[in-house]
């Protein structure tokens, strides 16, 4: 029963993160937009990971995984997301920095 309540709470959190992410995407301006988007992606990944873990546990009816291994897994996902975010930011910075196109022209990112 506890897992069902936790699952409902996680889904609500995930829905709120997704709503915030979409609102941020639609918004204009916002200086730290890329950083905030990456933070939301990390939170979303962690929530989805936890939901998947609960589903797997419910399907196999095995005892709960130790908090230590859950924390470790979430940290691994967060570190992977941060590494991906850093790569995206470098690519965007390089693309935006090199896209000083003449007026009227549109910059096209190069494929690497």
What topology emerges from the helices and strands here?
Layout: H1 2-26, H2 33-60, H3 67-97
Helix pairs in contact: 1-2, 2-3
Sum this structure up briefly.
Helices cover 75% and strands 0% of the residues. With 112 residues, the chain is mostly helical.
Question: What do these coordinates show?
Answer:
- With 112 residues, this protein is mostly helical.
- The chain has one domain (2-90).
- It has helices at residues 2-26, 33-60, 67-97.
- α1 (2-26) packs antiparallel against α2 and α2 runs antiparallel to α3.
- It is flat, with a radius of gyration of 19 Å.
Keywords:
flat; 112 residues; mainly alpha
Instruction: Characterize the main sheet.
Output: none
Low-confidence stretches: none
Globular, elongated, flat, extended or rod-shaped: what is the shape?
A: flat
Tally of contiguous helical segments:
3
Portion in strands? under 5%
Distance between the termini: 50 Å
Work out the helicity level. Answer: over 70%
What's the total count of β strands?
Answer: 0
Give the C-alpha Rg.
19 Å
How many domains?
1
Q: Structural class from helices and strands?
A: mainly alpha
How confident overall, as mean pLDDT? 76
The arrangement of helices and strands along the chain is HHH
């Amino acid at each position: 029963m506890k897992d069902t309540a936790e699952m409902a709470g996680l889904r609500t959190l995930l829905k709120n993160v997704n709503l915030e992410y979409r609102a941020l995407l639609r918004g204009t301006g916002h200086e730290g937009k890329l950083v905030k988007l990456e933070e939301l992606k990390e939170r979303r990944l962690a929530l989805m990971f936890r939901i998947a873990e609960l589903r797997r546990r419910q399907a196999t009816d095995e005892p709960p995984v130790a908090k230590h291994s859950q924390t470790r897994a979430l940290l691994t996902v967060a570190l992977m997301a941060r590494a991906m975010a850093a790569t995206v930011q470098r690519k965007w910075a390089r693309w935006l920095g090199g896209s000083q196109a003449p007026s009227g022209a549109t910059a096209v990112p190069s494929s690497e």
